[in-house]
Every structure is written in C-alpha cells, then in structure tokens.
Specification:
With about 120 residues, the protein is α+β, with helices and mostly antiparallel strands. It has one domain: Nuclear Transport Factor 2, Chain: A, CATH 3.10.450. Strands 1, 2, 3, 4, 5, 6 and 7 form a 7-stranded mixed beta sheet that branches. The model has no long low-confidence stretch (mean pLDDT about 95).
Length: about 120
C-alpha cells in the first residue's frame, strides 16, 4: 500500500528534506498557509520550499515527528502532524493541519494551518 501524499509531505517536512518536498509537489502547485502572525502564498515547489525555510529555519532542529494522521474526504486529503522542535528558545511542539488535492500523482493544491511554536 502506498503512503498517502499528506503523510509523505509531513515526513519530508519533518526531515527538512527539500528535494523530497519538491518531488511531492506538482510543478504548478497552488499553496497557501496560515501561521499565527501571517498568511503565506506560493506558486510552484520552489515557493513552497522557501516558505518552509522561513517556518523552520536553520536554527530550528526538528527532533521528532510525533504524530501523523491522515484522512480523505470528497476530493481532498487531510494530514495532521505534530513535530518536536528545538531552537535557541528551547523545546517546542508545532502542529500543522494540511488539506491537499492530488494532481497527476503529486500535490497540486495545498493549504496548511500552523499552530505556531508552543513551548514544552
């Protein structure tokens, strides 16, 4: 059985594997994200990767992918995932909910809602 796209995306984000993230995204992916302080938009895999670099910069060490939960409904997939992150401010939990649609075997439409960095 193949892993759902949302779970694969969560694992790639947790590993900070930019090449894998790009592979999962359709060349014309439509992305929007919402963090506690800002909305984000990008078109194309490079734009999504640039956004992820801001969300999790070089000082943010993703120590563990704590949970991944996926579900499908109508023409969408949902992936919820929780990360343990350590940076100069200490240990944090970050949870994200991603909604996506497949296009040609890749993620063609992606919306991500982020909890922000919550102190442990």
């Amino acid at each position: 059985m193949t892993e759902p796209l949302g779970a694969a995306f969560a694992r790639a984000v947790a590993a900070k594997d930019e090449a894998r993230v790009r592979d999962l995204l359709h060349p014309e992916v439509d992305f929007r994200g919402l963090t506690p302080g800002r909305g984000w938009e990008a078109t194309g895999p490079d734009g999504v990767v640039e956004t992820l670099r801001v969300w999790f910069d070089d000082g943010d060490v993703i120590e563990e992918l704590l949970a991944v939960e996926t579900d499908a409904f109508a023409d969408r997939e949902r992936a919820g995932y929780r990360l343990r992150v350590r940076n100069g401010d200490g240990a944090h939990l970050v949870e994200q909910q991603a909604y996506l649609s497949e296009r040609d075997g890749r993620i063609g439409w992606l919306r991500v809602l982020c909890s922000g960095f919550r102190p442990v």
